[in-house]
Amino acid sequence: MSDTARPIREGSLEAPTRHPLDWQNPAFYDEKALLTEMERVFDICHGCRRCVSLCNAFPTLFDLVDNSATMEIDGVAKADYWKVAEHCYLCDLCFMTKCPYVPPHGWNIDFPHLMLRAKAVRYRQGGLPLRDRVLTSTEVVGSLAGIPVVAGVVNAVNGNRLARKALDTLVGIDPEAPLPPFTARPLRRRLKRRRGNQARGQEAGRTQGRVALFSTCYVNRNEPHIGEDLVAVFEHNGIPVTLAERERCCGMPKLELGNLDAVAEMKKVNIPQLIRLIDLGWDVVAPVPSCVLMFKQELPLMFPDDPEVARVARHIFDPFEYLWLRHREGRLKTDFKQPLGKVAYHVPCHLRVQNLGLKSRDLLALIPGTTLETIERCSGHNGTYAIKSEYHAASMKIGKPVFNRVAQAQADHFGSDCPMAGHQIANGLDDGRHPEHPMSLLRKAYGI
User: Nearest-5° angle of CA 136, CA 137, CA 142?
Assistant: First the structure.
């Protein structure tokens, strides 16, 4: 390991510091500078290897090093660096939980954002298949697949083995990967009457007691019952719910693709809509952890000087975070009517890195006759990663410890705050059982 590759070591006992993403600087897209920085960081990662169990990016890197002529990073062809970036799905766990060299350490390692930079460079070079561009266009796909006749056809194709093999051959979607169903009655249409709701709520701590629901592409088009369960639970607790007049994708799928310009375009629609509601005294909740993380962390890092982005970050909540804040102030109803028995609860990566604690677990634990098996490990789904033919096997390997824990728990219910992770677990179990979102379980416990 070369002495020149590393700065003088400094101690790092403070909380991690995340630097803004300098994505609007032309130098950000300089491939030569990118590869130089990747070599520096990969050299440090090779000497540490603490993150080997998190995802397939690190084993890919270490195999490249170990199989090289020198068994050091200088023996790895720079053309192979892209293989590492392809396996990073920006879960952020290495930065938040494993790496001892994150800022304020002098080595200044931010592996996920370095991989994001690599994805952005590759995207601008036009090196991505059409499949990836389509899969991350969640609004367009959802709108087309949500047409009544089309929805039935798409769902039938997704469940047909011969059709799935054809998808594998034609576009590289693995035939064994679970694909979400599409609905012709999206959540925003079901809740249309709640737009413009002026009902007042009761403040508690830093919550206003009334929320604007950011429905998310997935819940809106694929599993609207999760949003309906959220509304039922919140209204049972005296929390009025409204919808923004307009809503775009949060931008996380395009971020993971490296299309940062598309993220900026989505931000131009979403932030003014949410600010208008915040100005009227509404808090914001979103039922998918990745979408909350996008507004809480990624957009503020992309637009550090935008005060409206910062305001939205302060006023958006994970739903269970919001309910727990209300519970601390004595504003949560605990009139549970139905015990849940044993629940195998999976904590998604994008929830863990928000540093909220395990609020879904804590709230479900309030239900009499309910015990929880809490699993804090990656399910392997990770956006579109698990459905791509070239990565599906790796995704199942990553998720196997989770599948095993759920199977061993012999629980009455299992699920995750990330509905896609829930289906990945069901796919790994392969026993006919279906996941249940924690909000759906909470509604069941309330008996509403």
Answer: 115
**Alpha-carbon torsion angle 55, 423, 227, 192, nearest 10:** 110
Cα–Cα distances in angstroms (integers) from residue 46 to residues 76, 284, 292, 349, in the given order: 12, 41, 32, 23
Per-residue pLDDT tens over the stretch 9-43: 444 566 788 999 999 999 999 999 999 999 999 99
pLDDT tens-digit readout, 66-104: 999 999 999 999 999 999 999 999 999 999 888 999 999
| C-alpha to C-alpha distance for 445 and 439, rounded to whole angstroms | 10
Element (H, E) at 373: strand 370-375
Q: Could you give the domains of the chain?
A: 10-124 (no CATH), 130-171 (no CATH), 187-325 (no CATH), 334-446 (3.40.50)
SS (H, E, C) 406-430: HHHHCCCEEEECCHHHHHHHHHHHC
**Separation CA 301–CA 120 (nearest Å):** 15
Give the CA angle between residues 379, 129, 417 to the nearest 5°: 20
Tokens representing 189 are 């249409």
Other CB atoms within a 10 A radius of the CB of residue 156 amount to: 10
Q: How far is CA 323 from the centre of its chain?
A: 20
Cβ pair 244, 215 in contact under 8 A: no
**Among candidates 294, 250, 253, 255, which has minimal Cα distance to 269?**
250
- Please provide the average confidence, as pLDDT, over all residues in the chain: 91
Any idea which residue has 């629609």 for tokens?
Answer: 269
| Residues facing 173 on adjacent strands | 388
Under DSSP, the state recorded for 97 is I
State how far the Cα of 64 lies from the Cα of 80, in Å rounded to an integer: 8
Q: How far apart are CA 423 and CA 119, in angstroms?
A: 27
What's 300's DSSP letter?
H
- The DSSP code for 194 is G
User: Please, what is the angle between helix 319-328 and helix 438-446, to 10°?
Assistant: 50
CB within 8 Å of 234: residues ≥ 6 apart: 211, 240, 241, 285, 319, 323
> Where do the DSSP E strands lie in 18-81?
none
Whole-number Å distance between alpha carbons of 96 and 44: 17
What DSSP assignment string belongs to 226-272? HHHHHHHHHHHTT--EEE-S-----SHHHHHHT-HHHHHHHHHHHHH
Least confident residue range of 10-14, 30-34, 235-239, 311-315: 10-14
**Antiparallel, parallel or unpaired: β 241-243 and 316-317:** unpaired
Report strand pairing: 241-243 vs 283-285: unpaired
Overall size of the chain counted in residues: 448
